[in-house]
Amino acid sequence: MPARVSTRSTRTSAAVSHKSSAATLGSRASTASRSSSVAADVPTERPDSELRGQVCAVFRDAQRNTASHRKLVVTLRKIQEACAYEPTSLKKTAANDFDEEAFNSEFVRCVLRVMPIKKAESVGEKTIRFVGFFLRHANDKDNEILGEVDEDASIMPETPSTRLTSYLMSTILPLMTAKDKFVRYRSTQLISHIINSLDAIDDDLFQKLRHGLLKRIRDKEAMVRAQAVLGLGRLAGNQVDAAANEDDSEDDEASGLLEKLLEVIQNDPSADVRRSLLVNLPILPLTLPYLLERARDQDALTRRAVYSRLLPALGDFRHLSLSMREKLLRWGLRDRDENVRKSAGRLFRERWIEDCAGVPPPEEGAPPAERAPPNFDGLHELLERIDVVNSGVENGVALEAMKGFWEGRPDYREAVTFDKNFWETLSAESVFTARSFNDFCRTEGNGKYESLVEEKLPEVTTLAFYLERYLGVLIEAIKRVSQADSEEDEEEDTVEQEFIVEQMLHIAITLDYSDEVGRRKMFALLRQSLSVPELPDDVTKLTINVLRDICAPDNAGEKEFCSVVLEAVADVHDTIVDDPAPDDRTDDSFHSARSEVSGDTTPTRSGSRNKSPELSEEEARAKAVKEIMINMKCLHIVQCMLSNVAGDLQQNDHLVSMLNNLVVPAVRSHEAPVRERGLVCLGLCSLLDRSLAEENLTLFMHFFTKGHTALQITALQILTDILNVHGAQLLSSTPALLKIYIKALKSGIRSPEVQAAATLAVSKLLLGRVVTDQEASAEMLKTLVVQYFDPVTASNQSVRQALNYFLPVFCYSRAENQDLMRTVALDALHALLNVRENLEDDDADVNEEMESLTTIGACLVDWTDPRKCFNPATGLDLEKKTVNGDIHLEFALDILDRLGGNLSKEEKKVVAPLLGKLYISPTSTEEKIREVYDEITIAVNDKLVTDTTGRNALNKIHVSLGKIVANLGEQQDGEPRRMSRSVSVAMSRADSVAPSVAGSVASSRLHDADEDKTVTMEPDIKEEDENSDDTVIQNTRQGDGDSIVSELLSDEEGA
Q1: Which residue windows does the record flag with biased composition (Basic and acidic residues) (predicted)?
Q2: CA-CA distance, 438 to 460, in Å (whole number)?
């Protein structure tokens, strides 16, 4: 290959000294002064030549498919060399007759032909890829001819390829501001592709490209913006790299470009633009938080790209902070899109585990390496890196992650072993591995993996011995920490030991206790551990759950379970006194609670207390605190026990004794914590006995009225559970209970937490059809609708989210629910109108704070749309052309009643247009159709609505009903039927209603049907024309009965 540059080049010397933008794309520094982009004209057309034919042939073949691009690039390169370099052989070719400028001109000419091609045409994409491929290949060949070049040199050597690139870019740049969107798209796409293809760019050209692309990120077309950010992402990365070695101005410019791109990735409305930036922005400490933030993007493909492209490209996940790892895992595994969940699970089980196992990631472009053999030390490190002690609890993300891990990694599933050494050296990570494996095998695969768990996990007796050992370690650690001046390391060790015991109990609750030896061992161990006052609450709860599982599920097993738990409560209760005297052992825990009841009737007890040595103030305080703690512990055990009991309270002597001796005194206690926990236990007892619930209903309401926020929420939950279990008759027998719920729903300003709890409670009562009383249901539903649109709840996302789900589901699930919504819709709309007027009086920005009443009315109509209601007969058929529309006819009657009442002008403007939004079904009840049509006719004749929008809505429904009524008359022509209500109303209003076509036809039918002595009469059909002043004028036309349909069609056009 010749190395001598041809003297035939016609380019001037002014093009010789271009600075490198330090622009090996590894650095791309920009040291030249910033200059504005130079507008270049599209070159004039050269005369046809043999060179043009050769270049055009290459481009023609390039746009057919990409498989031949490599061969075509070599062909085009030979043509370029023949034009730009001196020939080395005597063989004459056609290209030797042309110079470099001619080749550049023909090359650019072919590229320009791509600019107007639409985005959907694949030839444009193929040609642009070919151009980028050729320029990269040509630059590489020119660099080989020049030999080794110092990469740090400030001057970039000039070659035919660099001159071609500069000429092409200068020609394309002005097209980025063209009026045609496809020209802007293709020009921006070409420039971005070339930027991403080349390793070095001339510095002056670099600045022009940067300036031009920055303008395109504000383009109105999303496809143009998406291509612009592709190029800017590459430029930004190289500018940042180079700015590290430059002055402050360079650094400021680089950060300025990044700031603009970060603003785009956060705020651009197009998902394609945000996704393009996500995968093209450089991963830097500045940009990483913004990139990871896209895991919460609205677009599912963008969220998926975070897990499938960004995080794998990030490298070792251990560089992320602990909180960020947990968030990314939780967001991905709980995403609403299945593909995002799959990508997140794949990332966890394939990439993160390999990082911890010490397997180097495959190089970019290299084939994926084979999976490394199972490494359980790496798995335990992975669990440690996601903080399994905190994320492995109930509803923690670690359980979901490991479920996908065991499912997607059969090699780990087969290789895992739980031998003796494993159980003797448990850590938080290893025991969670066993627990997650046990859960997976028992719940997934329809029992396919049951044999694995039977093979690998120990028997009940063995597990009971290990559990006994770790329970002892936990209790010793707790006692050690409870002593003064405990170190932080000891507290962390206690947390880990507690986690280990919890996981072992989770395993124990799934075991088969048909082995009597193992069952007795586990039963005795749990009974003994439950009597330890220091046992943590979470461990206590799990212990009671396992105990209930061990006992038989029948009534006898339930009684045995209660007796065992209450024995443990008595043992815990006995530890309340440090130095127990013989007569001071019993009945001392709730003496403060019982003092109100017992008073002076227990001189023996008070006498014994008076005889005891007086305690100092500190000792008395410590003793009181200990009493409270022990009482709380006893009540917690009872609460957990009651959560596992379903039998009748009165038939269980143990429960009756517990209620009288423990729960009732706790509710009467002067200590607030004891009283509140006693209230929860009393609520659970009330679920087991209806009479007890009725007796204490007033007490729960009193706690709601007088209690603080947390107590109010507890009381609401108890009341709701009682109604769910014992039925809504309690609601009708206790009128004050409904007021409690309404008050809670309206407590948003004072206590948004109570409002959120009340919203969930009322939603469950209505959706579960627990409340069947019409008045109570209507009042609750109306309050929910008002709260949904009230701007006061705008900041209470719990309320808005709950109602956003509840209202459509409630309405669309049953026709009765839609009818209930219809009955409250206008009242709710009236209440919201008052809310809006109050906001206007307060000079607030109403349109910003509250939805318009038109939108609210549309929602109410949509929720009562019979086509959207689920019907067991038709299923989820979306068309539902034969649905009965009586509910909207009833809605129309309600609206007419309101319009005929004392409504304000503003409210009429809101209510009347709803008539035009109603669905009028021809398959509705005939009597209902005729009744509504009659009322609509009266409203039209009486000019009930005065504003234009309302009149148009009234006319619309009038015409729609008229067509249906006319069709009904044609179908029943000649068939005797009784006089409808619409006829009687029309006859009674004969003075005000002019005779119509239908009326004359009806008269003839009366004469023809005289023998049957049956009145057959059709209602009036009015035509309404609208004059130029938007005033509706009612006209009367007469004709024969056959023209009714055409008359009505003309009515619709006039309306």
Answers
A1: 576-594, 1005-1015
A2: 14
How many angstroms separate the CA atoms of 807 and 945, rounded? 30
pLDDT tens per residue across span 292-334: 999 999 999 999 999 999 999 988 899 999 999 999 999 999 9
8 A C-beta contact, residue 674 and residue 717: no
Structure tokens at 540: 């206590």
SS3 704: helix
Q: In this predicted model, what pLDDT tens digit does every residue of 235-282 receive, in sequence order?
A: 887 766 555 555 555 556 666 888 899 999 999 999 999 999 999 888
- Residues 272 and 292 sit within 8 Å (Cβ to Cβ): no
- Burial environment of residue 940 by CB neighbours within 10 A (0 to 12, 13 to 18, 19 or more): buried
Q: Residue 11 in contact with residue 105, Cβ under 8 Å?
A: no
Cα–Cα distance for residue pair 513/530, rounded to 1 Å = 19
Domain-by-domain residue ranges, the chain? 47-147+157-215, 285-361+371-457, 459-550, 722-873, 882-970
- pLDDT tens column, 851-890: 889 999 999 999 999 988 888 776 655 455 678 888 999 9
DSSP conformation class of 6: P
Query: CA 884, 886, 889: angle at the middle one, nearest 5?
Result: 135
Number of residues that make up the chain = 1055
Q: What is the DSSP code string of 946-973?
A: -SHHHHHHHHHHHHHHHHHHHHHHHHTT
Cβ contact 998:1021 at 8 Å:
yes
C-alpha 864/C-alpha 884 separation (Å) is 12
Amino acid at 884: N
Q: How far apart, in whole angstroms, are the C-alpha atoms of residue 1055 and residue 1026?
A: 7
Contact 392, 398 (CB under 8 A): yes
Write the single-letter amino acid at 719.
L
Task: Assess whether pLDDT exceeds 70 at residue 971.
Answer: no
Q: Which residues, 6 or more positions from 82, have their beta carbon under 8 angstroms from its beta carbon?
A: 93, 95, 96, 98
Return the C-alpha torsion angle 794, 799, 804, 810, nearest 10. Answer: -140
How far apart are the C-alpha atoms of 146 and 480, rounded to whole Å?
77
Contact between 62 and 110 under an 8 Å Cβ cutoff? The reply is: no
| Tokens found for residue 167 | 């000429």
